Predict the 3D structure of the following.
Amino acid sequence: MSVLACDVGGTRIKVGLVSDGQLLATQTLDAAIQEGLGRSLVRIGEALQVVCEQAGIEPSACRGIGMGLAALVDWRQCRVIDPHSKYTDAEAVDLNVWARETFGLPLAADNDARAALLGEWTYGAGRGSDNLGVITLGTGIGTAVGIDGHVLRGPNFRTGNFCGHMIVAADGRTCGVCGMRGCVEAETGSAQLPDVAQRMYGFAQSALSQCDRIDYAAVCRCAAEVDPVAAALLGRATYLWSVLCVNMIHAFDLDRIVFGGGVMGSAEMILPPIQEFVDRHVCAPAGASRVQIISAEQPDHMALLGCEALVDEKLSFSHAV
């Protein structure tokens, strides 16, 4: 049986129909966080109906709905407990009622990076790893961790989720989510990228200044054309992501980190220097295996695929209780 999947991000909302690790149909919506999660759920429900029609499957034939949200989520209750400055009405929205009244299906919800972790662990580049980290590069910097084959959540559901708010530049930019200066998200999140770029010396003469949209796709494209500002931006971001990897490895003793997000379309420019940095700076005993730094198999859909594993996990938990 298939699963209805939703990846509710800060810039885009992706929905899909997933069966046995295969994405049968998908739709992408603008997030429009200003309208709130409650109103967005109407559009999400309509889009899920469309993907079911595309795949020729009735929603009632699915075994549940999986939802990854760019927020801190109580996965047992399927409730947002901190919206991370997005969807400010989210804490008051009853996601279970929406799932039941719209589709008559059970809901499994968690942080979107945890959904991505489950997707890669079950179906993707995380297979075979016992101690896995995931970093999703997007509007913010999402992270999740699994140790000894189990997803880390913690009593307040934040374990492994806030590595994107580790401090990497003590005198850096102030983060609108955690309030600290110089966290990875404040320094390298794509939401901050236009402002960071425009403050760089030489920006006015850079090819980036001619781009309609300054995102990491544009930065990588211009850096490949030897634009010095783009190259400096990419080099700095790559360095800070490398520091994040080393911090996560030292904190959780990981054997693999999987990167996701649309920027992995330029993985060949980003991951080799991160792997080299990790090889040089990780403290490990003699004979320890190299920590792998790799791209997700489907970096733009890893959370959608993980929604199937999330539903299976939630149903197993419900039966156990």
Q: What stands out?
A: The CA atoms of residues 208 and 218 lie 7 Å apart. The two ends are 23 Å apart (CA to CA).
